[in-house]
């Protein structure tokens, strides 16, 4: 599956154009809007792959893509908010305890505050990892149904999240993104090259990862190819 995911974009004869657009948008991610557009493209990837369509989507219908991307980012933000909130409370409270301990010259309080900071960071890391595990499935459920609320449907997500197939797909996607990040960090030895390569590699890896998630979701939910998708000539012949 990893090998297929890495070749996914190349199923389109205009794949170089797609990578160029995606890479440039990724490099401009600080402007927010490009990030929304990339997120919208990834929603298209997961929506098509879950229906068994091997040809990657194009960068077109920018308005619709922006709407999908904005919804995907809101989904990710909501799932990531709780870990961030807990981290802020635990770490912030512990730092306050350290400051108070130093002010009172109480070593015990400072030690407790330091332990609280470490605990807060550990808890936030674990919860962040859980959120990162849930988010692709949540976006997939939104992509399949085109209903924003479905991203938070516990009943729909539970069976997928505990399945070995989804776990394997998530780990595979994470591995692709991790390796791409590692390569980009190595290329950072040449600052300009590392920055530019990071944008293009990051986009390519994200598409590959969501290709894997989309395929797993389609198999788990037994998603059928929608009418008018895929290869219309062959479908008409059938």
UniProtKB/TrEMBL annotation:
Bilayer-crossing regions: 20-43, 74-99, 111-135, 167-187, 193-213
UniProt keyword list: Membrane, Transmembrane, Transmembrane helix
UniProt protein name: DUF4013 domain-containing protein
Species assigned in the record: Halogeometricum borinquense (strain ATCC 700274 / DSM 11551 / JCM 10706 / KCTC 4070 / PR3)
Keyword Signal set for record: no
Statement: the UniProt record of this protein carries the keyword Transmembrane helix: yes
Pfam families, sorted: DUF4013
InterPro entries: DUF4013 (IPR025098)
Classification of source organism: Archaea, Methanobacteriati, Methanobacteriota, Stenosarchaea group, Halobacteria
